Amino acid sequence: MPSGLKRDLGLPATTAIAVGAMVGSGIFILPGLAYMQVGGPSVVMAFLVASILILPAALSASEMATAMPEDGGSYVYVERGMGPLFGTIAGVGNWFMLAFKGALALIGGAPYVIYVLPAIEGTAVPVFGDPIIPLALAVAVLFIVLNMVSTSSTGSLQFAIVGVMVVVMAVFVAGGFGDIEPAQVEGAFSIGEPGFLAATALVFISYAGVIKVAAVAEEVKDPGRVIPQAMIGSLVLTTILYVAIVYVAIGIVDIEAAIADGQLDDSGEGAIMAIAADQALGTIGVAGVTIAALMALASTANAGLLSGSRFPFAMARDGLAPPKFEAVSSRFNTPAFAVGVTGGMMLVMIAFLPIEQVAKFGSAFQIIVFILVNLALIGFREGAIEEYDPEFVAPLYPWVQIFGMAGGFLVLTQIGTVPLLGAALITGISVIYYYAYVRDRIEREGAATAGLRESVGTSAVERTRELFNAKREYDVLVAITEETSTSARRDMLRVASDLGRLRSTVVSVVEFLDVPSHVLTEEHAQVSTGSVPDWIADDPAERPDWYPDEEPQAMTSGGQEVAEPTTESSKLSEEHETAIEYRKVNSEDHRKAMADFATYEEIDLLLMERQKVGRTSRLFGKSEADWVLENAPCDVALVEDRGFEEIEEIAVANRGGGPYDPLKLLIADAIAEETGAEINLIRAIPADAVETKRESAESYHHELISTLTVPARSTVLETDDPIDGVARFVGDADLLVTGVSHRGLRDEIFGGTANQLVDAVDCTAIQVQTHDARKRGFVEQLLMEYVF
Predict the structure, then answer these.
(1) For residue 359, what pLDDT band results from cuts at 50, 70 and 90?
(2) End-to-end distance of the chain based on CA atoms, in angstroms?
(3) Can you name the CATH fold of 464-787?
(4) How open is the CA angle 146-149-150, to the nearest 5 degrees?
(5) Cα separations (Å) of 526 from 315, 518, 519, 523?
(6) Once rounded to an integer, what is the mean pLDDT over residues 51-58?
(7) How big is the chain by its Cα radius of gyration, in Å?
(8) Does domain 11-442 have CATH number 1.10.10.10?
């Protein structure tokens, strides 16, 4: 969208911004620290491996930047790809992180200033004490003014700084190469030392600035060409620079001796490059490297301010931050307010915060951002967004992105406790801000969410079709006890027998009776063949229309034959039919006997009556139905019987939280086939749901309707009270088919949403739980709830 920003950053300036955002503390401070971490010269290889792990994120960001050349960089990609919540986390986190890093860079040159001017260490400045602080504040104010006045001037300054720095460091490498002690670089390119991964994690942050150039994409000339070249080129250039400089530095400086002499502290931190330049080039080399170090750190601060200010700017344009951050100066065509606030944050951090410790918080968060950038690209590719048309396409998709995410997670395990806690803190602040300010102001979702919903919905439709088209015999157990009402027995048998309309079905009607243990002659349950029970009329002419024509059939139990079929007509034909057999099972525990029977007979679906359980009972024990739901080796359907003689409408309700279980639809369709009823597919979505969520739900319903064998219609309602909303739309339906409530703390106290829905309607209800759905974990449930 038009923003008033000028596209005046060419390839040199854009590359300089990227290099400047990377080359800073990574080369002038970290080599000594990483050397001590890995315990040897393989720190050189750690820098090389870190750049390889960064490459996937650079390729992903390059592709997305050419498709969306907008200021905001990784925030824009994560927000568009993963949705506003993740976008807020990326935007707020990057904003704070870049301010931290910029402030650290401005005071990070202290060891080099002290190295060339040792007398300054004892100088006291009023108010601040340390003279480094007011100097850093002055430089920060200079950069703030430059960024407010002209992005072009800032880019030119960045190019000049980086140019001088690269020339000086190239001279250092050329001049110092001949002074390398071979013994000190032996094993420099080896992998496998105990601290290698930890050292790689430490220097990983040295390349963090590679995707920061995308934060000013809206101010880049010809972004489709310049951004990929600048991003990949700067990474290659910086990697070569890092590897060469570190190789020469550790080849010249005996780090352990330098620590012993007090030139470096015990952790290896200090002006290591100045020490190396002193040994290789003398006083002139020290002066040159010190100037280069200060310029590099200054460029890091300038790049941090420039790119950092674009995050609140882009967020404001998307409605994720106050509108004032979006304001562009009519005089200078720069986001002056965003620059001013970001600069002000840096000034406060420099003056008052223990910046070295605080800045570490951003390290782990930056790794998380790289992971999200790779994931966002997958979201765009798989989301099939028509508007997504990048000029540059990342190669070897999706393997490069998977490698990048795996590498990021590996590095995260090595980053340390404090940075991880810092990342968690930034993430927590971002989430709180999202729910406090953002959530009620926007109505959109990410490409990944839409793509995942479409993918899951397509998969669910295919599973439904597979179940409907399956030729395998379907075995149903109608489990009754002494407590099961007569009407429930009949209605459960009716439901089971109706399945024969869609596929060949064998129904085992089994009465489970509890008897004292001394009555049983064996340890296991006793199974006997039963005759037609008294709740089914003896005279076939008096039986209901839905009752199958076949005579009763006895089958096997536990692998042993109990009785032969009484007539040939009771055997299943090649057409869809239902055969019924009757049994009685005497056992000490009828619940366990139900599960055992279902196991031995390889039952596909167990039908039993639902018991309404009070809140106290839920808290202090499981109901019979709860126990069966958790232990049955098959699908389970609970029947809340309120009578259904004439059925004209069947409601299949899904409050949300995922696609319909195919078994719900199979049961509803079979009953509708028998009765001539119409099916109403009902799904509730939040009242503030984005339009794409409603469109996806409607599309999903229509795909399912094309699979059903009976007339059906779709109802998608937007409501903040899904129980009341669905109950109202069930309305005059004669039968409700829905899911079960998963047993958790909320369900223990309040009864679960599915149970509440069944209690809220007046018709007979069937609650279905598939065996696979029982294994669904808490995280998967939350994901399905979020997506659907």
Answers:
(1) low
(2) 30
(3) Rossmann fold (3.40.50)
(4) 85
(5) 70, 13, 10, 9
(6) 92
(7) 35
(8) no
